Inverse folding.
């Protein structure tokens, strides 16, 4: 048996084999019967689109990447990671006021609870940083039960506007973006056997990350601004890669209604696999197109 499909654009005809036909007689009970429904079998989801999105477009082979229709070269030259994050999350570049508010909220959430610091310090010195980051993100969700749909009376409606969901949702965004650099820096410091550095929030986002990773005993340590800019661009390059393995994992977990920190931990685990290395290399080709890094110029008013 087969299904004949004609592409009206080109007139090409495809024969799609039908290996079996089934009928659900009762919920959960399937028996072979006359043809009733057709289900697509696509091993590994290699040719299946599960959603539409205008967030990101990437063509690694051609070195093309754009966010919300804006080429990554333009963002790398004129924008910042904070501004690009706002663009990806909310669909447009922020005004100066919006960017200031967003950045301040994120930087207010860079600190970790002392109990979380104890949790991280319990890892062995040779624990892999990805394992530490993934575990800590999962543990982070236990500190904020108000956002967990399994622990509140509103259940799956916790993120809906009628229940103050927008505020709850935004607060998790600020927390995650703010705390993840502290978690990553602490994982690195654990690995090299050095004490943790507290965030210094008068610094920029990437300067803060470099500070927490690199400062030793200096009283006036300041990260190299050129390195901070390069790291900021690198963060932008990896901010979104269409429906990649980790994004698909997060969407799949989210569909169960589980809290966002559990979803993010699962998405982090998806990035842990060796098959995720090569796609990252492809996208890094975009960084070669922008030439020497220039001073950051805010595009908030464009």
């Amino acid at each position: 048996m087969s299904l004949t499909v004609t592409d009206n654009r080109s007139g090409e005809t495809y024969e799609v084999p039908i290996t079996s036909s089934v009928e659900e007689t009762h919920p959960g009970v399937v028996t072979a019967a006359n043809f009733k429904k057709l289900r697509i079998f696509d091993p590994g989801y290699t040719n299946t689109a599960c959603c539409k999105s205008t967030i990101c477009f990437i063509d690694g082979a051609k070195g093309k990447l754009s966010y919300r229709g804006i080429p990554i070269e333009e963002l790398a030259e004129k924008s910042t990671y904070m501004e690009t994050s706002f663009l990806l999350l909310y669909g447009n570049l922020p005004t100066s006021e919006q960017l200031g508010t967003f950045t301040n909220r994120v930087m207010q959430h860079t600190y970790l609870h002392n109990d979380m610091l104890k949790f991280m310090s319990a890892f062995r010195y040779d624990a892999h940083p990805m394992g530490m980051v993934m575990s800590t993100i999962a543990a982070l969700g236990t500190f904020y039960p108000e956002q967990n749909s399994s622990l509140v009376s509103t259940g799956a409606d916790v993120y809906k506007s009628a229940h103050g969901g927008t505020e709850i949702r935004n607060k998790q965004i600020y927390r995650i973006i703010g705390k993840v650099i502290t978690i990553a820096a602490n994982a690195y410091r654990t690995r090299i056997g050095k004490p943790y550095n507290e965030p210094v929030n008068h610094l920029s986002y990437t300067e803060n990350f470099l500070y927490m990773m690199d400062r030793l005993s200096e009283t006036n340590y300041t990260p190299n601004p050129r390195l901070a800019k390069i790291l900021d661009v690198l963060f932008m390059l990896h901010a979104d890669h269409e429906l990649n393995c980790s994004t698909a994992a997060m969407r799949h977990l989210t569909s169960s209604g589980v809290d966002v920190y559990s979803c993010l931990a699962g998405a982090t685990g998806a990035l842990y696999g060796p098959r995720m290395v090569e796609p990252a290399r492809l996208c890094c080709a975009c960084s070669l197109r922008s030439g020497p890094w220039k001073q950051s110029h805010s595009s908030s008013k464009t």
Summary: Residues 278-302 have pLDDT under 50 and may be disordered.
